[in-house]
Amino acid sequence: MDNIKQLDQTYIAPTYARFPVVLTGGHGSVLTDEAGKEYIDLGSGIGVNAFGACDEVWQKAVCEQAAKLQHTSNLYYTEPCARLAAMLCERTGMQQVFFCNSGAEANECAIKVARKYGAEHLGPEHTTILTLKGSFHGRTLATLAATGQEVFHKDFLPLTPGFVYAEPGNLADVEKQLDANPCCAILFEAIQGEGGVIPLEPAFIQGLAKLAQERGLLLMADEVQTGNGRTGKLFGYMHSGVQPDVVTTAKGLGGGLPLGAAILGGKAAGVLVPGSHGSTFGGNPVCCAGALTILERLDEAFLAQVAAKGDWVRSQLEGAPGIKTVTGTGLMLGIETEKDAGEVLAACQARGVLPLRAKNKVRLLPPLNIPQDLLAQAVQILKEVCAE
Question: What is the three-class DSSP state of 240?
Answer without folding.
Answer: coil
